[in-house]
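Troubleshooting entry. The earlier prediction with FE2/S2 (inorganic) cluster gave an output that would not parse, so I re-checked the input for stray whitespace and re-submitted. Clean input:
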Amino acid sequence: MNLEVEIAGIKLKNPVIAASGTFGFGREFSKLIDLNLFGGISTKGITLKKRTGNPQPRLCEVYGGIINSVGLENPGVEAFVNDELPFLRKFDTKIIANINGFSKEEFMDLAKIVSPLVDMIEVNLSCPNVKEGGMVFGKDPNKVYEITKEVKKVSACPVIVKLTPNVTDITQLAVAAEKAGADAISLINTISAMAIDIETRKPLIKMVTGGLSGPAIKPIAVRMVYECFKKVKIPIIGMGGIMNHKDAIEFIIAGATAIQIGTVNFINPNAVYEIKEGIEAYLEIMGFNSIRELVGNINI
Amino acid sequence: MNLEVEIAGIKLKNPVIAASGTFGFGREFSKLIDLNLFGGISTKGITLKKRTGNPQPRLCEVYGGIINSVGLENPGVEAFVNDELPFLRKFDTKIIANINGFSKEEFMDLAKIVSPLVDMIEVNLSCPNVKEGGMVFGKDPNKVYEITKEVKKVSACPVIVKLTPNVTDITQLAVAAEKAGADAISLINTISAMAIDIETRKPLIKMVTGGLSGPAIKPIAVRMVYECFKKVKIPIIGMGGIMNHKDAIEFIIAGATAIQIGTVNFINPNAVYEIKEGIEAYLEIMGFNSIRELVGNINI
Amino acid sequence: MKLLDVEIEENVKIANDIFLLSFESEYLAENFKPGNFVNILIDKESIYPLLRRPLSISFVEGKRVYIGYKVVGKGTKLLSQKSKGETIDVLGPLGNSFLTDISDENVAIIGGGVGIFPLVGLCKELKNKGNRVDIFLGFRDSNSMFLVEKFKDICDNTLISTDDGSCGYKGNVVDIFKNNFSKEKYKVVFCCGPKPMLKAIKNLKLPVKCYASLEEKMACGIGACLCCSIKGKDDNVYHVCSDGPVFDIMEVEIE
Amino acid sequence: MKLLDVEIEENVKIANDIFLLSFESEYLAENFKPGNFVNILIDKESIYPLLRRPLSISFVEGKRVYIGYKVVGKGTKLLSQKSKGETIDVLGPLGNSFLTDISDENVAIIGGGVGIFPLVGLCKELKNKGNRVDIFLGFRDSNSMFLVEKFKDICDNTLISTDDGSCGYKGNVVDIFKNNFSKEKYKVVFCCGPKPMLKAIKNLKLPVKCYASLEEKMACGIGACLCCSIKGKDDNVYHVCSDGPVFDIMEVEIE
Ligand SMILES: Cc1cc2nc3c(=O)[nH]c(=O)nc-3n(C[C@H](O)[C@H](O)[C@H](O)COP(=O)(O)OP(=O)(O)OC[C@H]3O[C@@H](n4cnc5c(N)ncnc54)[C@H](O)[C@@H]3O)c2cc1C
Ligand SMILES: Cc1cc2nc3c(=O)[nH]c(=O)nc-3n(C[C@H](O)[C@H](O)[C@H](O)COP(=O)(O)OP(=O)(O)OC[C@H]3O[C@@H](n4cnc5c(N)ncnc54)[C@H](O)[C@@H]3O)c2cc1C
Ligand SMILES: Cc1cc2nc3c(=O)[nH]c(=O)nc-3n(C[C@H](O)[C@H](O)[C@H](O)COP(=O)(O)O)c2cc1C
Ligand SMILES: Cc1cc2nc3c(=O)[nH]c(=O)nc-3n(C[C@H](O)[C@H](O)[C@H](O)COP(=O)(O)O)c2cc1C
Ligand code: FES
Ligand code: FES
C-alpha cells in the first residue's frame, strides 16, 4: 500500500509527523522507537536566542487532555543547528524546523538560517504561551499574510504556516497564508484554556492560561481542517487529539494530506507505528489504492 | 450555609441552573428529580414559530463530549406560554426563557411575549445549529450590542445574553452586551465541532458540524469565564462541561456567580443535588460564610 | 421510570459477540411492558464513553430482568467485561411498548439481529393473552444465533433464516415472512431489527397494522434533549425515546 | 529504558491509602539504580486519566520490582484497584540516580511521606557498599507508617518522627535530623519528600553534600516535552525527569 504523500514537492514516505514541542529534537524518543518510522518530524519550537521558558507549573491534566505552558523553552537556533540537527539528519525522515519569532524580522532571520538545512520550515504563528509573537500575530490574517510573505521570500525550502484555533474563523488565516505563498498549512495548535486547583484557588498553570491538547480538542480540530480544506488548495497538515489510526483517518477524510501526533507520544510512544499500520490496513480493507485517494474524500 | 445568589435583583436560592436545551421544559426530568432543587431552569430554546429542528443524525459521541445538532426544535412561543410555562411555574425555582430570533425584530417580539411571564430571559446569541440568527449574530459584537439594546428596551424582566465561544475574543461580546444594558451574561454555548464515521466517510452529524458540549470543553469555558470576569461587572453564569461540584466550584472561582449544567443531566440526573451539596460542603470546609465570597476569588 | 443501582446476576456470552445480562429489580419487573428499554450508565466515572446506552428489556422472569446486547463499540464492550456482583446504574423502564391488548388473534413477529431481543417479552405476553404467534428470526449465520430455543418454547411457529443459509432458510428474513404472509392469516405484525429490514417491511405496504421498534442515537432517553427525533407524517416530529421506540410503521419515515 | 508490559504480582495496602505493588521484570531489576522511576500507563484505553504516572522504583529483589504509592487522585486510585495478574504498561527505568559510589562512609538519609519509597533501594545499595546508614523517617501519624521494619533491617539507625507524636519523635523530621547532624558525623546526606521538607533541608545550608530527589508534573518522563523544568543556578533550566529526579540540593531552586 502506498502511504507516500507529497507536500510542495517534498515526499513523505507516510503521512505521520511528530508534532512540534512534543518530540524534542528526537533524541529522547529515539531510544524508544525507530525514528525512521515517521514520515516527518517537526522539531521543538526554535527561537533566535535560547529561552528558558515559562515558570512552573507548566502542565496540568484535564478531562481528556492536558494544558501546557512550556513557553518555547529551547536552546536557540545556533545550538539547534550545531547540536541537534546533525543527529536528526541521520534518520530517513523529513525534518521540519518549527520556527518562532517575536517580530517579522526574527521570523525571517530564523528562516534564513535553518531553511537551507532542513526539508521544510513550520512557521509557528500560533503559540499561546508567549506574550509576543506566536498567537498574538497569528490571530490577525494581515499579520499571517505579511509574515508568511516575507518568510517565503527568504526561505530555501517549502514553508508550512501553523495556524491557531483561537479565532472566529480559521479559514481567514488559511486563505491569508495561501495568498502569501505558503506551501502548506498545519493546524491546529493548542486551544487557550485554564484550570483551577479548588483547594488553593490557584490556577494549575502558573501563567494562568495555557494550551489545551489531546483527545478533548479533536472534534474542534477536525471541523477546522474540513473548513480550511474547502477554502484553500495548498495541502493541510491536520492535528489535535489524534490517539490512534481511526482519529488520523478522520483528519485525512476531512482534508488533511498529512497528520501530526503530539500528546499521544507521551502516552503511547508506539503510536506512530500503530497509526501507520492502521491506516494501511484501513486503505486495503476499504479498497483504496493510495492514501491520496482518501484526502478530503468525505461523503456529504 | 448560604447558597443564595443574586442576578439583577432576582434571587436564586442556589447557583445551579439547568442549561437550556438539555432539560426540555422540565416535565420529563420532573419524574426523576425534584425540580425545586434547582436555583433556576433555563428552558429549551424557544422561537416565534414552531420548529421541527434538524434532520438525523443529530447526536454523536466523541472523546469526553457529545456533538449535537438539534437545531432549535421547539413548539413555538405560543405553545410554550400556554402548555409548558404553567407546569414550570408550579415549582419554587426561577424560570429563564431561552429565546431565539432570526432577526432583531423576532428577538424583540419574543421578549415582549415571554418577559412578563418568566423571571429572566436568556437571549441566545450563540446557537451553532441554525443557518441564520444564533451564532451568526452572536459572533459580531455590534450585533450583540444592537440586539441586546433592543431586547432590553422591551423586556419586562432581567436579560441574560448567552455568548458563543467560537470567536477570537469572547470579552468583546461580553463588553458589548454589558454596554447595551444586559443584566448578566451566560457562557459558553457549544463549540462548533465535527466527527466523521470512517466506515461510511459520512459526517456523524447530518448538518456536518454541530455543537460540542461536555467535559471536553470545560477548560476552554473556564478560561473564557475568567477572561470575561476581568472585563465586565455584570454577573456571569458559567457553563461548559460541569460534571460535579468540583467543576462547578472552578467556574465560580473563575468568576461565575451562577452555573448551568447541561450534558451531565443526561448522564446523572442527580447532578443538581450532588453539586449543590458539594458546594455547600466545600464552602464549610474552606471556611467561607457565603458563596458570594467565592465568586472570582482566585489566587493569582 | 426510576434511577436504579442494580447488581449484575449474570452476564454471559450466548453467541458471537452477543451477551445476556440479568439482574434483579422488582420495580422494573413489575412495570415492564414489552418494547420498553432502559438507559444504562456503565461506568459512573467514565467520560469516554460518556452517555448512557439504551438497551431493550428482553424479558423478565419473576423479579429478574434480562437484557441482551451485542458488543459493537466502547460502551457495550465495557459492559461485557462486567461480572456478577458489579453494579450498574439503570434508568427505566423507558419508552412506550408494543400494543399487546389483543387476544385470540394470529400475530406475526419479525426480528433481525439484536432487534430480536425485545421480542422475547412480546411473544411471552402475546401468548399469555391467548394469541397464536409466529416468529420470523433473521441471523447472519449459525454462529450468531441466540435464544432460538426460547422462542421455540414460547411461539407456535419459529421460522429462521440466515444470510448464508447455515441454518434455516437462506436469505433475508423479510422474504421468508413475505412468502408466509397473507391478510387472512395475520391480524397484526410486529417487528424490530436493522433499518434496511424495517424499510423492506414498510415497503411491503402490508394490509394489516404493523408496529416497529426503532432506534436512534439518544442522550437523555426520556424526551428532554430532542436528539432522537424521527419524522412522522405531515411534518410531525416524534422522539424515539418517549413517543417510541414502537411506532406504527406507516406513520414514520424510515431512512 | 524500555516500554514493558508487566503483570502485577501483588498490589497490597500497607498503610492508610498506601499501596505496595510488585511485578517481575528482569530488565528493570538489572538496570535499576536507586532514585530511578518509571512512568506507568495504568489503563491504555483511558482518556481520563490521560497521562502516564511517574512513580519511583522503591527497591528490587531478584527479578521482582517494588513500587510504593499513595492514593492521591484518579490515577493512583485506578492503580490501587488493579489486581494480581492484570497488566500495566511501564516505561523505565527513567531519570538519574542517587550517587552511590561511596563506601565505608557515614550517610544520613531523610524521607518524608511517599518520598520514603525510593529510599529503600538507596539504603540497600549504600549498605551493600559498606556504608553506615542512618535514616530519618517522617510520617503524619502511626496509621500512615509503612516499611519501617524494612528500614530497621537494612539501616544502622532508624529514627522516626510523626506530626502528632503517635510514634517516635513528635514533630518535623527535619528537626530530628538537625539535632542529630554534625559535619563530622556524616559525609553526605540524601533526601526525598514533600517540597516544604526539602526546602527546610536546603535552608539548613549543610556543610556537606546533600542530594534531593524532586517531583514535578510530567508528561513524557524522558526529557522531550520540557514540562518538568526546574530552575538551576545562573538561569539554567533542568528537567526533573531526565536531568533528575536527583539534584544537588544547592544547585536548584525549590519553591
Ligand atoms: C431504544 C433502543 C433499544 C435498543 N436495544 C438494544 C438491545 O436490546 N440490544 C442491543 O444489542 N442493542 C440495542 N440497541 C442498540 C444499542 O443502544 C447500541 O448498540 C449501543 O448503544 C452501542 O453502544 P457502544 O458504546 O457499544 O457503541 P458505539 O458505537 O461506541 O456508541 C457510540 C454512540 O452511538 C450510540 N449508538 C451506537 N449504536 C446505536 C444504535 N444502534 N442505536 C442507538 N444508538 C446507538 C451509542 O449509544 C453511543 O452514544 C438499542 C437502541 C435503542 C435506541
Ligand atoms: C519522579 C517522581 C517519582 C515519584 N515517585 C512516587 C512514589 O514512589 N510514590 C508515590 O506515591 N508518588 C510518587 N510520585 C508522585 C506521583 O507521581 C503522584 O502522586 C501521582 O502522579 C498522582 O497521580 P493521580 O492521578 O493519583 O493524582 P492526580 O492529582 O489526579 O494527578 C493529576 C496530574 O498531576 C500529576 N501529579 C499529581 N501529583 C504529583 C506529584 N506529587 N508529582 C508529580 N506529578 C504529580 C499526575 O501525574 C497527573 O498528571 C512521584 C513523582 C515523580 C515526579
Ligand atoms: C508540551 C507541548 C509543547 C508544544 N510545543 C509546541 C511548539 O514548540 N511549537 C508548536 O508549533 N506547537 C507546539 N505544541 C502544539 C503541538 O504541536 C500540537 O499542535 C498540539 O499539541 C495539538 O496536537 P495533539 O493534541 O496531538 O497534542 C506543543 C504541544 C504540547 C503538548
Ligand atoms: C442537546 C443540546 C441542546 C442544546 N440546546 C440549546 C438551546 O436550545 N439553547 C441554548 O442556549 N443552548 C443550548 N445548548 C447548549 C447548552 O445550554 C450549554 O450551553 C452547553 O451544552 C454547554 O454546557 P454542558 O457542557 O454542561 O452541556 C444545548 C446543548 C445540548 C447538549
Ligand atoms: S434521547 Fe433525549 S429526547 Fe430522546
Ligand atoms: S516530563 Fe517531559 S521533559 Fe520531563
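This one parsed fine. Chain C has a mean pLDDT of 95.
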